[in-house]
Design brief:
Largest sheet: 5 strands, mixed
EC number: 2.5.1.61
Order of helices and strands: HEHEHHHEEEEHEHEHEEHHEEEH
CATH architecture of the largest domain: 3-Layer(aba) Sandwich
Subunit structure: Monomer.
CATH class of the largest domain: Alpha Beta
Strand content: 15-25%
Distance between the termini: 62 Å
Bound molecules: the ligand NCc1[nH]cc(CCC(=O)O)c1CC(=O)O
Catalytic activity: 4 porphobilinogen + H2O = hydroxymethylbilane + 4 NH4(+)
Pathway: Porphyrin-containing compound metabolism; protoporphyrin-IX biosynthesis; coproporphyrinogen-III from 5-aminolevulinate: step 2/4
Number of domains: 3
Shape: globular
Number of helices: 11
CATH topology of the largest domain: D-Maltodextrin-Binding Protein, domain 2
Number of strands: 13
Keywords: Porphyrin biosynthesis, Transferase
Length: 317
């Protein structure tokens, strides 16, 4: 008699979107490769969990409000013991984790840039005044309006297929997605161009995948240690510390990017933008000998500086 539940050694929880599924499979494959005891067919189960963010498709995420739109239901399954680890796009993970949960693993980070996608134009600069760009991200909308005040932005959600159809129908002239997502879906050709970080600073942790587990689960923790990328973890830690410092402000568009320089130092850039694009504040920190602790300290410091400079007016606008 074969009973699959006997053979399952590890249960991965994930959202069901094509991108989330690709990420979960990547983690399963890496674990199976690193640990012979997980390599047998069926040793790692993948459980799909629907989140609030997956159910509400007709509104901007900022409008639905609250934190953890893509994580809450998965957190509950993890803490309730229905799954042993959860794979997340770190961009969607709130900066404060529920009690008893840890984030021991960040995979090697993908391309951090946003993709410009249009059937008519090669870049924002080519677009005539009044052209319409669809995005559900307050950060992308605000960054576009800040740099190109003559362009129009509208709220626009959906997967790659839906967006391409809407572009073809002419509902919008361009849309944006993360390069990382397109690459993981094996659809890099969908990007008309990658937008340089200087032109559009990415979201905190864009392009990074993180894995959460129960704090007490040493078995899973040990299995995962082979998968962590320390450099990516330090970068994400710096950016998330900045976000956490600014957090009361969940409607303020925030962007941040930590990068290693050729000399080994880390450069952290953080920006906040008014939703209508009318004002933008930037700051930067250089981190010598970056590690998790000094990256977090630099991020907190940068976030606090912007919070102070922006004041309550900017932050809750
Ligand atoms: N919920 C949106 C989301 N969360 C993570 C990604 C992309 C992948 C990544 O940044 O790691 C996306 C889609 C997008 O912005 O295009």
């Amino acid at each position: 008699m074969t009973n699959t539940s006997d053979t399952v050694k590890l249960r991965i929880g994930t959202r069901g979107s094509p991108l989330a599924m690709a990420q979960a499979h990547e983690v399963r494959d890496k674990l199976a490769k690193a640990h012979p005891e997980l390599a047998a067919e069926g040793a790692i189960a993948i459980t799909v969990i629907t989140t609030t963010g997956d159910k509400i498709l007709d509104r901007a995420l900022s409008e639905i409000g609250g934190k953890g739109l893509f994580t809450k239901e998965i957190d509950d399954a993890l803490m309730g013991g229905e799954i042993d680890l959860a794979v997340h796009s770190m961009k969607d993970v709130p900066t404060v984790l529920p009690d008893g949960m840890i984030l021991p693993t960040i995979l090697p980070r993908e391309d951090v840039r946003d993709a410009f996608i249009s059937l008519k134009y090669k870049s924002f600069a080519e677009m005539p005044a009044g052209s319409v760009i669809g995005s559900a991200s307050l950060r992308r909308q605000a960054m576009i309006l800040n740099k190109y005040p003559d362009l129009k932005v509208v709220t626009f959600r959906g997967n790659v297929q839906t967006r391409l159809r809407k572009l073809e129908e002419g509902q919008v002239d361009a849309t944006l997605l993360a390069m990382a997502g397109l690459n993981r879906l094996n659809r890099p050709e969908v990007a008309t161009a990658a937008i340089a970080e200087d032109d559009m600073l990415p979201a905190v942790a864009q392009g990074a995948i993180g894995i959460t587990i129960r704090e007490t689960d040493n078995q899973t923790h040990n299995w995962l240690s082979a998968l962590n990328c320390p450099a990516s973890a330090i970068r994400v830690t710096a950016e998330r510390a900045a976000l956490r410092a600014l957090d009361g402000s969940c409607r303020t568009p925030i962007a941040a990017l930590a990068e290693y320089l050729p000399d080994g130092r880390m450069r952290l850039r953080v920006s906040i933008v008014r939703p209508d694009g009318s004002e933008r504040l930037d700051t930067e920190r250089m981190i010598d000998d970056p590690d998790l602790a000094n990256a977090a300290a630099a991020g907190t410091d940068a976030g606090n500086e912007l919070k102070e400079r922006g004041g309550s007016d900017f932050i809750s606008a």
